[in-house]
Amino acid sequence: MQFKRIDGDQQGAGATYVVVLSEGDEAFATLSTFVKEHDLTAAQITAVGAFERAVVGWYDRSTKEYRKNPVDEQCEVLSLVGDAAGSDKGPQLHLHAVLGLADGTTRGGHLLEGHVWPTLEVIIRESPASLRKTMRPDVGLALIDLEKTA
């Protein structure tokens, strides 16, 4: 992975980062580490590229768990969008992906895992605000809590 900060003030507020993941990088883990190392508690994330394989998930509200849908083939990242927000565990990612398959069909959902091949080009735009996620036991997920957002 390589990255470059391309704008924003010197204190970090409002920074924009270009993050380029390399062949073999696991996208979700690599980006999770990046947002934690840069303490990004309010950021918008977009990306395009390709995976050699991936796992997307569909949230099953009855079990409060993600159903894993593996994509065991090379696929194009047609759209990857999400956010980073603060939580009791530090900055956390929430990413959704639409993946294009060789036959022209798509597979999509919550990105749980994506093994990059040959690249994933990511834009991370930090907000000067601070978002906060709070665990919602009724839903089974940590969601952005506007009452705790500064």
Give a structural overview.
- It is a single chain.
- This protein is mainly beta.
- It has a single domain (2-148), classed as Hypothetical protein, similar to alpha- acetolactate decarboxylase, domain 2 (60s Ribosomal Protein L30, Chain: A), CATH 3.30.1330.
- It has one helix and nine strands, in the order ββαβββββββ.
- The strands form two sheets. Strands 1, 2, 3, 4, 5, 6 and 7 form a seven-stranded antiparallel beta sheet that branches. Strands 8-9 form a two-stranded antiparallel ribbon.
- The model has no long low-confidence stretch (mean pLDDT 93).
What's the arrangement of secondary structure elements?
Elements: E1 2-7, E2 16-22, H1 27-37, E3 42-60, E4 65-71, E5 75-85, E6 92-100, E7 106-126, E8 133-136, E9 141-144
Antiparallel strand pairs: 1-2, 2-7, 3-4, 3-5, 3-7, 5-6, 6-7, 8-9
